[in-house]
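Below: protein 1.
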Amino acid sequence: MSERRKKRYHILEKLKLPFLLTAILLVSAGVFYVFLRENLLQSYQRMGTSATRLYTSDVETEMNAYTALMRYGTESIDVHVQDGETSEEIRGWISKYCERLQRIFGENAIDPYVVYQGDILAANPWEGDESYSYQDTEWYQKALSSDGEVIFTDVYVDAIYRRPVITMAQKCQNSDTVFAFDIFPENIQFHHERAELSPNDSIYICDRKGRLIYADTAMHGTGEEVQQYVNRLCEGIRTGELEAYDAYVTDLEGSRRGVYYDEMNTGWLVIITVPFESILAQLNRFVALFGLVMLVGIVSLVLFTLRNLRMDYEVERTGETIRALSNSYYALYRINYEDDTYEMIKGSDYVRSHLPLKGSYPELLKVAGAVIEPAAFREFRESFSSESIRNLVSNDIRDFGGDFQRLFGDEYRWVNVRVLFDEMLSSDEAVLSFREVEQEKRGQLQERKLLEDALASSRQSEKSKQAFFNNMSHDMRTPLNAILGLSDLLLQNAGDEEKVRSYVERISYSSRQLLDLVNDILEMSRLQRGKVVLNNQSFDLRECVCSCADSFRLQAEAEKKQLRIICGLRDTHVMGDAGRMGQILNNLLSNAFKFTSEGDSVTVEVRQLGDQERTQYQIVVRDTGMGMSQEFLPHLFEPYARETRFSSRQINGTGLGMPIVKSLVTQMSGQIYVDSRLGEGTAFTLTIPFLVAKDEEGEAGKMEEKRVLFNRLSLEGRKILLAEDNLLNMEIATEILKMNGLELLQAWNGAEAVEIFRASAPFEIDAILMDMQMPVMDGCEAARRIRALNRPDAGRVPIVAVTANAFAEDIAATTAAGMDAHISKPIDFEALCKTLAELVGRTGEPVN
């Protein structure tokens, strides 16, 4: 017998007895497992049956309470009938009795009513009870044929409420008058806590025909799927298939469940199902623990037997690993810094040709100096001398080194040198290692060059920014200096009409110059945020909106939905990207039609905010469809995000429409705001700045049209609440508005504006002009509080933001706060008056 076969036979002899004992333990454990499993299932059958009886007792107790109240009510009605009371008197008694029942069982738990002289008398008259044929109903026929006994029906869908109900009824003793309760199954209450069962257990109550009365289950499935599942349970109960303690049924999620049930006096079934996984959980944990112990024992035995072989194998592998690691270094030396000697573990070709494997460490440094770059050798010799290595070890510096260039043949390449020491080495020894790092070093140098370039670029950017601010400061100070100087001259020459006119004209010119500068700064800010190339050309915004909406009219007619377009534009021709605008509208309208149903409406409203050369346009796409949950709204503009909503039809889409809309609106310097409620609908509000495209030939006609419109929409006699914290702005606005025939109420902050409006009579104030930034309370918060007041004009009074905040996000904020329009400072009072006239006229009162 060979040595290898002898060794194998010896190992098998050692393992024979432990393996035999292990097999006996495994067989015993299997028998014990079967015994425990049967006992657990039998015990759970008893517990489950007992639990169903408790719930049966709860339901029967509640039914008995209903029966007692039914008998009392029937006897009372019988007395009223015998006394000859009218239908209205009996109806009044029913109303009082219904109030008592609601105090006992809660609101809408029971709906009592009486069939008296061919009419149905109820506490709350039903809609459609005139056409309701009660004579054909099961409850009425059973009540008449039950000789005064209380009867219960099975679950059915009520013809009036369209909800599942159970009807109990009783015929009066001395007449054919029938008293009935409609009991809604969802209001059935249990006196025993649901906590007595685990969260994965399910409770079902079904009538004699198997129709579901009550369900409390963690399973996921539609009502029809759960009903089919309960039908299978009832069929198994009636055929006896589920009587055995180990009988089970497979639920909708594919899990096995034990079934325990009890039958009520009414023939209803109370069913409890418990997952086998829960029943056998402790047993399975025991089996897992036992198996783990056995596995640990067997593994320990095998490991102990193979330990010696493994040690030899590990020694060999350790040697291979060390050799693989040493290949990363082209030279390794063990340095004894006390004896000042070295031992060459691995050396370079040059050192091996000049030095022996062991020798003097200073001699090694001297030979190495012949190939180290001259500029680095002196520092190398000082840093890696025996004295330096001794200091490193005493300071517990375990890893020390650096990079230098070494001569390989006729070229210098980068090398890394490290001094390493560890407790595994002798107390006076360390390892000196050399590794070539040419590629790594070049990468580091490139990264450093990139960082230096980035720093230089950052500094240049900072200089450019500083130059920009310097130029802006200079450009702004020039018109400001003119305005201040001319204002002083105006005060000094107030009596000279010619000079006053000249000063005012130059002040106006300087003011517009300053405004143009501010507008240029705002435009620069918008351009810096852009990431796509927009093809800005003159186009008709009204035609663009109508054309895009018209493409959905056939779909609206086919799906029986309403599509409305409201366009309130003064300047329809604007400079912009019509294609991108159409893409935004198409996405929003497609989304609106996708999530609306038959009979819903989709509305597109376009408004112009302001009347300047560059003005804001607001587009609102509103639908009355499904709406979105508040939890989903923060994720609306994330790619591939989809709202999970209940619907009778499949909703298709990639989930990229809203992110595309958000990106395009952002690149067009606009803002998008969404307001949505589940079951109520969704409104997307876009606020986008456009440059009005001037028509030089029709300019005179347009100015005349504006003048006629302004004269027609007079505001004389209207009362306006003006909220402004700046004294000068308040004075200017008050004087000019009074010149136009308006009556002014002044508020110096948002809180004061809210109080003035609250104290006024309903509809006394025709409009509110609100500054955004004010002390105590800002304009947006004031607008929200005014809209929240409990008075009829709080939601209708026009609120106009009059502020220096001219960014699209500021307009979006005022819209979200409930404001109707936005006028930027410096105020164009002609545009302000026109806006007020339009808004006041829209509230329902004619404008004088």
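Below: protein 2.
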Amino acid sequence: CAGRGDRDEAPKPVTPECADGQDNDLDGRIDYPEDDGCTAASDYDERGPCGNEYDPPRLQDGVPLRLDTAGGVFESQGSCGGQGSPELAALYRLTNVIEALEITTVDPATDVVTTLYVRREACLVPGAEVACQTQRENAAPGHTLRVESPTPGDYYIFVDGVAGAGGVVMLTVNEIPLAACLNTVDDDGDGRADYPNDPGCFAPFDRDETTEALTACSNDEDDDEDGQIDFPLDPGCPSAAFDSEENSCGEIRFREFFGETPEVVAELADGSNGLSGTCGGRNHNEVIFRYDLPFNARMEISTRFSETTTPVALYVRRDCDDTQTQLGCDDGAAGGANGGRIVLSQAAPGPYYIVVDGREADAGQFKLAVNVERLPAGCSNDRDDDDDGLRDYLDPGCSGPEDEDETDLPAGQTPACSNGEDDDGDGLVDWPFDPGCWGPGGLDEADPAEPPACDNGVDDDGDGRTDFPWDPGCVSRGHFSEVDPARAPTCADGQDNDADGRTDFPFDPGCFARSDSNEFDGPMNRGACANGLDDDGDGLIDFPFDPGCAYAALDDETDPAVLPACSNGEDDDGDGVVDFPREPGCAFAGDDDETNPVPLPVCGNGEDDDDDARVDFPDDPGCAYAAAGTEGNEAFVIPRCRDGVDNDDDGLIDVADPGCVTADDDDETDPAEAPECGNDADDDGDGLADFPADPGCVARGDDRESQDCREGVDVTPIPANGTVNGSTAMDGADQYATRCGGQGAPDAVYRYVLEEAGTLVVSADNPGTDFPPIVSVLRNCEERETVVGCAGHIGRPTPTVRVEDAQPGEYYIFVDGGGPERWASAGEPVTFVDPEGYVATPDITDDCWEDGGAGAFDCYGDLIRITHGEDEALVSPAPGTRMGMAGDYGFTVDSRFVNTNIWRLHFTPAEPGDDRPVSFRLEG
């Protein structure tokens, strides 16, 4: 038989090569079916479809074949490459219906990069190509080409070179079988096969039919109580694995459309007739598909294809049974097409009901395709999607970067990453400190198996700074990238943005990391490392002097178990200088690297940089420590009793030195006679001796161990859990000044004894209080440094002080006048002249009228007048820091340009908390 159409089975005059018993093509195989070149016994050519160009060896499923393309020919090339390189061909005969053919050269024995292309049935016809893939010339040898949904037949696989190269290649073909849920086999033996019939098949491409648990559509229950049970009887069940019987489309059935299968061909005649869109479909059959979108995306939905053979309308709804939720409708008639096209540019996650409805008939074929382009997740799109003023990782509704929804948790629920607890027990609490927290909305503090980039101890972006909080690209320890933003964050820009005399992280108390975008802190809101107190009782106060303070914004002074390099008593860098504050390589006591920078800092370079005849630290009063960057003395000079230096070389530092009466003392010189708080005696008979054990001692040089008030002060006791009524005298004496205000106002003093540790609440916010008081709670009546809390000032207007974990003992309570400070205007009109120029220029000087007021900042050129009572002080507005006195009122004024178009004046009273009224007058 020369073919099916041959009408004569009689032997031919010339015996075909594929039946003559000869190896005509000298490939070691004889006749049909042994010779792959023979399609039948009547074939007259053993060479087959590849002719004289190739003699393709036969590949077997999963069996590697060694080829050496260096001995190939230069006859073919693929659509993606191979030109000018030697190639060989191999044959694979597919006999089964499968999901895909996987063709791979990935093998240790493969020596060269390749171009792979596949032709079906016709070996020498380029138009028969069904797939092509090439490698880059510098890529690692080996790659894999996948042919999807191949039909049975002969496949000629060409192994070609890249840029003329040839060599050894190991070629393997693997058949990928059909998924268990579409292979027509009852794989789990439950009597039901494949999707949609098997309850273990959630989609046709599911590779396991096993049923873990019965769903609403297979549990033999009428879950929606409509009288119809499970798939296929209940119209709410598109498959046996669907987990809701709710009739989303009323009594009309719908199908599932899966994103893994972007297109489907279907028939209107198999649909229903119950819906219509605004653009058509009334009284004609429709087919309804439910598409579950898992993320924010751009969706393009179309039936405009040649396979759509009947006119159809296309419409999309969020709720199948509600016409008001229609998102678009297109019948294609305007463009002369059979089908429509709808684009949803900002589709949110959730179900979409896509309806293909007949325009003119109830039958006919159509093709529906859904193309999805994922958009940034709702928590990674740089938008405030829930309008709460917070975006992405800062939003408490965002559990991670892939979270599609910024909506916060219901009221009363707090995410694990902002609940104030160490949920995973690693010693780190919440965002931004726990590496398990991407943002404050994280639901789990558990650390990932692989440390995030901002907590892995590696300088991932090569900028010389490693991890959170030191790298400007790290907003938290759980952040996945160290890459710095295009614009330096406020806490890493080299500017004192809040004009508090401290610049950036780790020096500014408003900066919790170099990535922080706000330096402002406010003196009433500073933590333990910037509050002016020795919170851990080690005699060292705040950043940069306390070894427990790694940065100024830290709220815990407790020293680490292993002291950092700049506080460990060792010369770690071998330069002969040990630790902070004398080591030029130590920027702060908590610094863990003593290496000296190049060049040396101003206060450690051996030069008199400010020409005051004082050189470096500790000789120059402008140098707070050897690593400081300025010797200038214009601003506030830290007192010697809290500068972290052993100024008198007696081995004792600051308030641990018997020469220091308080932390504000500027002289560490020891007195001839040991003071009460440094004489090793219990002078007040309370069972505790000296500083820091005795609560009456604020420093070792304090001359009183007693916590009592001085003689002549009227102190009213408050009974346990009691209430007292009192008053301050009109025009009475201002007996005490506290850090919280009330200067110049009369005060009243009370004493309370706490018998056991607990929470102590002191409040003047009660009926009967008829003026705005300031309430201060101290452990020592005569030492304002012992304040444990205060309220009634501008930072905390309600006069209630709450002290958590208050220790037993005496507490002194001052009720002072003054109330919350406030700004008040003189009430005079201010006239502004429109500037001629609109570019800000730093022309603020003592007298800058010479340009006639033409600049954008013109012109605050007169001196600033600061008045307290009858006393007045004149201060230049020019940029810089200046100290002055208006009578007995001391102050510091800092003038600076914080940006090209922002001029800021920062006024600070010399006495902390001094809230006496002061007037300012600026003219220009």
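Residues 230-233 form the longest helix (4 residues).
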